[in-house]
Every structure is written in structure tokens, then in C-alpha cells.
Design goal:
Helix content is about 35%, strand content about 25%. A hairpin with a 5-residue loop joins strand 17 and strand 18. Helix 4 packs across helix 5, helix 11 runs parallel beside helix 13 and helix 15 crosses helix 16. The protein contains 19 helices and 32 strands. The strands form ten sheets. A five-stranded antiparallel β-sheet has the order 10-9-8-7-11, with no helix packed on it. It has a five-stranded mixed β-sheet with strand order 15-22-21-18-17. The chain has a five-stranded antiparallel β-sheet with strand order 30-29-28-31-32. With about 800 residues, the protein is an alpha+beta fold. The chain is elongated, with a radius of gyration of 42 Å.
Length: about 800
């Protein structure tokens, strides 16, 4: 006899034949009538008890008395696991030593049989077999009267004991089966079968738990087994007939543990989804702060998974599955875009989040120990090159840069010598006087490789305070510099040059616009600025004679204020690279690079020499194109990539010079800083800090970060240009220059007021170099979509 409690009802199993009970007799709700009750207190039995069993097929009642075996309850209870099943149970359980095949009797499909079949991956239906459809298939009619041709492998169960079932009764049959499903019955059947190490068919299980193997009971048993993932496993099948065996106790306990864990996880997910929905419903200013999502580990874990999914950076399948489950629970598609939109809707991401910044894991902050080291360098005003600096504070010094420049690397001076030749000084900031190779600050700069410039922010290569207050050139202040002085021949070639540590005192801090204005005004007191412009003109003419190829065009610049706001302020302007001030500065930077390359080669200094093989471009072949952006865009497509050499200078064909080293941005570019380390060590007579091989190895890491920074700048600039265009009035017209035709009348255009290239269909009769007017039809920065339409003028 077995005593077990389920759903607050006590269950008895006796080995005496007269009191055989089906397990369903002990179900509560409408199937159990407990007229008396049994109470356990270390197993004392109080009052007799009578159970009534509601037969689900006939609707009748069977009554059972348990008084006759009350006395044996206590004895049998302690031996629960050791007892064998009763021999009088109609021999429904077959020993595992017998062949499973003995239980498998494949049913032959006939007209009128009730069967269950798999309609698709999600639906299983009951239907009545009607007639064969070909050699193997059958036409069946489901509960809705819909006729379907099914394959044998679609049949999941044939209900036994039915010869000619009516399709109109399917719904009632199914409902009766559903009303009597109770998965707890499987646990008791499992205990009995496990105790005897037995297998069971569906019909045997129906007899065991319902006391009958009639159609409804059999179908109930089938449903219980087909939905069970805990107690039973399918041992074998023949057609729609199967034999099941009880799982081992250890396996059941493990499955239950997993089920419990899943239920807890599902509950946790449901609570998280409610939190997301609540945050979505809040007004923009009232949404939770980003930091608030990080307070609880279980919440932060899910937000972190969503963020990783949004930027295609999931660390493992678990993170991907977590994000997918959240998106599914929110009714969203499992895409990165859906994750981005969700994180934006809850306020975790700003509306204009820079996803590339997250994808590339760009360092936007400095750890405390780096900031402390930078502060120490500022406090220590020691200049290791103090005794070797020349004083150039008497010179008028012009620092010209874009107006949003955070740190200034370079400045210019010029004069005319008595013989009429021009002498120029290119002054470059001297961060190497603050930072030693291999130091903590230097290693951090090496890992960054470059400052990252975006329309929304600048992420400097050095800590901002050190760069701005210590290294950067500042107006009216004595500043450390490395100065490259060059005397030009009358044709613009280099006659003399020198490289020195220096002290300068910048006179003017000018934007390109203000420098161009001063040049146009031709003021007598700004003679030095005009000499610089004259030197730039000489250099340009000389480089052209050496085969230099000009690629000047229009370049957009954007400054975004308060980028985390839904509608931040966007300031856009276009740089014309042929502008006198821009040409002046670029020519002086090229001159400095040529002088350093010449100096390095002459003294056998390993440096990052940048060359570019002379592309065999016959520019005369493009002389038919309008000069400016149209011609430049055609030529630039044919240019070959630059090549690096760390031992000697190589010709730079595009610039038209014998060698080139980038030297003028050591606060912003690590390769420029490397050149400073090498040159300054040579000036001092010290051993050079790096060999050519070491520099080449360092360059591999640096160049990778430089490529990332360029990609970030390009994608961010494009995003904000599209956002700028999206905000423009629909009726606004833009002037557009036709650069080339892509296919048929689809042309590549340059929007002159924006400095931005896009494509659009243009009218027949338009030619390369013509100007047309276009309107912005649509612009979606997040999806990188821009659509332009030509404004056709009717006469």
C-alpha cells in the first residue's frame, strides 16, 4: 500500500484486489467527492473515508471504501520505494525484459478513424480519416470541416476504439479530454512504473490512471505524454504507436530543477519587460537615467545584453539569447535595429546615440591613475631641453586652425631675407618634452594612437588638461616648441633648413575664415602673413612642376551642441580647400614634412617616412573636366595608397616631393609623436629610443586605431549631415554640381551648400559639371537613407 499527498488530498494504494483504484480517483475539483477526511499526525488515521470517482467517459460514479486496509497503511508507507506493484492490475505493465516490439501494434488507417495530425510547426489538430489520396496520403476532415491531404509522418496519434467517428463531434470529444487533463497523475504513474522498472503504452497508461482504455481516456493519456517533458521518455515507435518508459529519478530531479529555474527566469523576464514598458511610456524628461539601469545586477545583465545585441557585439550565445528573449517578449523583431530603438525608447540610449563609438569600444575616458600621472607632469615644470632651446619669442607667430580646435599643434612665422629669399618657421608643439618614451602616459597614448574628432565631441590622445594646459600652443604665452626653419629658393624649392628646440610666443590665434579676411584686406601691419601666403604660392607652383596632383574640394564641418538632446543644435559650414588661408597652412605643413624627411635621411634617423608611388595619371586626360571638385573627384579615384618606410625617405608622388614625414600634430597623432622622440633624441645626442623595426611594429597597432578613428569621423559626419538635411524645410532648394553619371541619368552630385555627395536622377540634357537644383525628399540618418529629387525649371 502507498500513501502520498497530492493537491492536499491523501492517496492510498493497496495491494489487495478488492480495493483497486485508478489514480484519477484521487484528483480534486469536480472529479473528487471527499465525504470524510483522513488526517496524518505521524500517521494516526482519523475516521473512515469514502471516495467517489467520476468516470470521464460515462459520467457515472464508482465508490470505493478504504476502511478495510487502514490498519496496513503505516506498515506499507515506510516500504513505499521497495514495494512491487499489485499483481491484479490487469497485467498492464510488461517487464522490461520483454521486447518493446511486443507492445507495438501498428494501426492501419481506415475511413472513419479519429486521428491527431501535425498541421504545421505550431498546430496539432484532430480529424477524421475520409479516403486515401494516392498510395500513401489520406484526405482527412478536421473539426472545422476543412479537408486536408496529409502524409503518414504527419499523424501523431490514432485514437483506438473508434470505427466511424463523426466530424461534428470532434470539438466535444476534444473538450472532454481537455477537462480531465491533470499532469500530476503522471507523477504517480511514473512512481509505479519506476518502482517496477516497466514500460507502458498509451492505452496501458489510460487504464492505469483512469481505470479505462476507452477513446477519451486514451486520448487524455496521449495528451499527457505528448506534453510531458519530465517523467517519461519515448522508448520506441511504430507509426503513431509508441512505448514510453519512466525516466530515472536523478534525471527527473535535474529536469525539475531546470524547469524551476526556467520558471524563475520567465518571471524575472516578465518583471523586466514590465519595467521596460513603464519606461517607454514615460515622457522624455522623466525616463530613468542611464546609471539607474546599472543598480541591480539582474537588470544590468539584461540591459548589457540588449546593448551588445544592438551593436553586434554579443560575447556569447547566452547574451544573444537573452536579448532575443527580451525583444520577443516586447513584441519586437530580433534585429539590432529593434534593440537600438528599444534602448532609445526607454532613455538608456540618447536619440542620436553613436553606435560606431560603442561598436569599436573607443576609449572616451581616462582611468584615475593616468589622470594622476598627467597632473604630476603639469605640476613638474621641469624642461629637459631648457639649455638647448633657441629663443624665438621675437617672431610674430600665427596659429591658424578650425574654430573648434581644442588643442593647437602648430604655428607659423615668416620674413624676407636681405637677398629677397623667403624664410619660414614652422613651430610645432613639443609634447615630447613632457612625456618620455615608455612612460605610463606614453603607453596610454600609444594604445589610443590618435585623437578622435567627432561632430559631437573630441576624445584626445592625451588627457585633456595635460594637452590643453601643458602641451598646446597658447596665445601670448611662452611655449615649448620644435621649430623647423626653411629658406626657399625663388622657385619654391628648399635652399636651407634647420631643426631646433625653441621657445615661442604665439601672437595670433586665427580661424581659417579670419586669416582669409586678413589676407584679403592686405594690411600693411600683417606683412608676415602676406609673406607666408607668397611662400605658399611658390611652394604650390614648385610642387606642381614636380608632378604634384591637386585634389582640393569642398569639405563639410559640423559642430553639434548638446548631442544627447532629442533635437540638438547643429552648426554646419563648408571648407573650401582652395581657400587662401587653408592652402597657406597645408603648404607649410607639407614643407615641414619634406624638411624633416630630408633631415632624417641625411642623418640616418629611423622615422615613419611616408611615400606614395607616382601614379601614372595623365592629368591632361581630365583637362576636359571643369577644374575643381569635378576634376578632383575623377582623379582621386585612381590614386594609390601611401606606403611606409622606417629606414629612409621615399618619394611622395601625389605631393610632388622627394620625401615626407608627418611631424606637425604630435598632440593628436602618435606617429607624429614618434618622429618627435627620434628627432629630439638626435638633437640631444642621445641614443635613439626606437629602431626602424620597433617603429614598424608600433605602427601596425597605431594605424589600426587611426583607421577606426577615420571611419568613426566619416560615419558620424555623414549621420549629422543627414540629420541636418532631415530638418530642412521641404521646399528648400539646394545647388548641386554634377560630378559624374553612375548609370543612365542617375548622377553623383555634390551639394554645394553642404559639401556632401549624394545621387539623384537628373534631366536629359544635363552634363558633367552642370549645376542643378534639388530638394530633399527624405533623410533618415539612423538608416543612412538620403533621397534627392531634381527641381525641374519649366519655361
Amino acid at each position: 500500500m502507498v500513501v502520498r499527498t497530492v493537491n492536499s488530498i491523501s492517496l492510498f494504494r493497496s495491494t489487495s484486489p478488492p480495493s483497486t483504484l485508478p489514480l484519477a480517483a484521487f484528483r480534486r475539483h469536480h472529479q473528487i467527492r471527499a465525504y470524510h477526511y483522513v488526517q496524518f499526525s505521524r500517521f494516526p488515521i482519523c475516521k473512515p473515508m469514502l471516495f467517489s470517482y467520476h468516470n470521464i467517459k460515462t459520467g457515472g460514479l464508482r465508490s470505493y471504501s478504504v476502511q478495510s486496509f487502514v490498519d496496513s497503511v503505516i506498515e506499507e508507507f515506510e516500504a513505499l520505494r521497495r514495494r512491487r506493484i499489485r499483481a491484479s492490475n490487469k497485467s498492464i505493465l510488461t517487464s522490461n525484459k520483454e521486447l518493446v516490439d511486443d507492445k507495438l501494434r501498428k494501426q492501419v488507417l481506415q475511413k472513419g478513424l479519429l486521428l491527431e495530425f501535425r498541421k504545421d510547426s505550431e498546430r496539432v489538430l484532430l480529424a477524421v480519416a475520409q479516403k486515401p489520396d494516392g498510395r500513401r496520403n489520406w484526405i482527412v476532415s478536421d473539426q472545422n470541416g476543412v479537408a486536408t491531404s496529409i502524409k503518414p509522418q504527419q499523424i501523431t496519434y490514432i485514437v483506438p476504439g473508434i470505427d466511424n467517428f463523426n466530424t461534428t463531434e470532434i470539438l466535444e470529444f476534444y473538450q472532454r479530454a481537455q477537462n480531465n487533463l491533470d499532469s500530476t497523475l503522471l507523477e504517480f504513474a511514473w512512481l509505479e512504473l519506476l518502482e517496477g522498472n516497466k514500460s507502458v503504452t498509451i492505452e496501458e497508461l489510460a487504464e492505469m490512471i483512469f481505470g479505462s482504455a476507452e477513446p477519451v481516456e486514451c486520448y487524455c493519456a496521449h495528451l499527457l505524454l505528448s506534453r510531458d517533458e519530465i517523467y517519461f521518455t519515448r522508448l520506441d515507435s511504430k507509426g503513431s504507436c509508441s512505448v514510453y518508459g519512466p525516466r530515472p529519478t536523478v534525471q527527473v530531479e535535474e529536469i525539475k530543477r531546470r524547469v524551476t529555474a526556467k520558471e524563475a527566469a520567465d518571471k524575472e523576464l516578465e518583471e523586466f519587460v514590465q519595467l521596460l514598458k513603464s519606461a517607454k511610456a514615460m515622457p522624455p524628461r522623466g525616463k530613468p537615467s542611464k546609471s539607474s539601469w546599472k543598480v541591480e545586477d539582474k537588470i544590468w545583465h539584461k540591459i548589457e545584453s540588449l546593448e551588445a545585441f544592438a551593436i553586434d557585439a554579443c560575447k556569447d550565445d547566452a547574451q544573444k539569447n537573452t536579448a532575443g528573449a527580451i525583444l520577443k517578449a516586447m513584441g519586437l523583431s530580433k534585429t539590432a535595429g529593434s534593440a537600438v530603438n528599444l534602448l532609445t525608447d526607454i532613455g538608456y540610449f540618447p536619440v542620436h546615440v553613436n553606435l560606431d563609438l560603442l561598436k569599436f569600444n573607443v576609449r572616451t575616458n581616462y582611468p584615475d591613475h593616468i589622470l594622476s600621472a598627467a597632473e604630476s607632469l603639469l605640476q613638474d615644470s621641469h624642461d629637459p631641453d631648457k639649455d638647448n632651446r633657441i629663443d624665438l619669442t621675437h617672431l610674430k607667430v600665427y596659429a591658424i586652425d578650425v574654430d573648434e580646435a581644442d588643442e593647437l599643434d602648430d604655428a607659423l612665422s615668416a620674413t624676407k631675407l636681405h637677398d629677397g629669399r623667403i624664410k619660414v618657421w614652422i613651430h610645432v608643439a613639443d609634447p615630447a618634452s613632457f612625456v618620455k618614451p615608455g612612460s605610463m602616459i606614453d603607453r596610454e597614448a600609444l594604445q589610443r594612437g590618435t585623437s578622435v574628432f567627432l561632430p559631437t565631441a573630441t576624445y584626445p590622445m592625451f588627457p585633456e588638461k595635460l594637452a590643453m594646459e601643458g602641451m598646446s600652443l597658447k596665445q601670448g604665452t611662452k611655449c615649448r616648441a620644435v621649430t623647423v626653419s626653411v629658406v626657399l629658393h625663388s622657385d619654391g624649392s628648399i635652399a636651407e633648413y634647420s631643426v631646433n628646440n625653441s621657445i615661442i610666443k604665439p601672437t595670433y590665434m586665427l580661424t581659417y575664415e579670419s586669416a582669409s579676411e586678413l589676407l584679403n584686406l592686405n594690411l600693411e601691419e600683417e606683412l608676415e602673413l602676406r609673406i607666408l601666403a607668397e611662400a605658399a604660392s611658390l611652394r604650390l607652383q614648385w610642387r606642381r612642376g614636380q608632378g604634384a596632383i591637386e585634389t582640393g574640394s569642398l569639405e563639410p564641418r559640423i559642430k553639434v551642441e548638446n548631442p544627447d538632446d532629442p533635437e540638438p543644435s547643429i552648426r554646419l559650414y563648408v571648407e573650401d580647400q582652395t581657400d587662401p588661408a587653408m592652402r597657406l597652412v597645408s603648404e607649410m605643413m607639407v614643407l615641414c614634412g619634406e624638411a624633416i624627411a630630408t633631415y632624417g635621411s641625411a642623418n640616418k634617423i629611423p622615422l615613419p617616412y611616408r611615400g606614395q608611388p607616382q601614379s601614372k595619371i595623365d592629368t591632361s586626360a581630365y583637362s576636359h573636366l571643369p577644374e575643381g571638385p569635378v576634376r578632383s573627384s575623377a582623379i582621386v579615384k585612381l590614386m594609390r595608397a601611401a606606403e611606409m618606410d622606417y629606414r629612409k625617405a621615399t618619394r611622395h608622388g601625389i605631393l610632388g616631393i622627394p620625401g615626407y614625414v608627418q611631424f606637425t600634430s604630435p598632440i593628436r597623432r602618435y606617429m607624429d609623436l614618434l618622429a618627435h622622440y627620434q628627432v629630439k633624441a638626435f638633437l640631444k645626442g642621445d641614443v635613439l629610443p626606437f629602431t626602424s623595426g620597433q617603429m614598424e611594429g608600433m605602427a601596425a597597432s597605431v594605424n589600426m586605431n587611426v583607421r577606426i578613428a577615420k571611419k568613426l569621423f566619416s560615419s558620424s559626419l555623414r549621420y549629422w549631415i543627414l540629420e541636418y538635411l532631415r530638418r530642412q524645410p521641404k521646399q528648400r532648394k539646394f545647388r548641386a554640381l554634377i560630378l559624374k553619371f553612375l548609370k543612365d541619368r542617375n548622377a553623383s552630385l555634390l551639394l554645394l551648400e553642404v559639401g556632401f555627395q549624394a545621387s539623384a536622377w537628373v534631366s536629359i540634357g544635363s552634363h558633367v559639371g552642370d549645376e542643378v537644383e534639388v530638394r530633399v525628399e527624405e533623410a533618415h540618418p539612423r538608416d543612412d537613407i538620403i533621397s534627392l529629387k531634381e527641381v525641374v525649371q519649366f519655361t
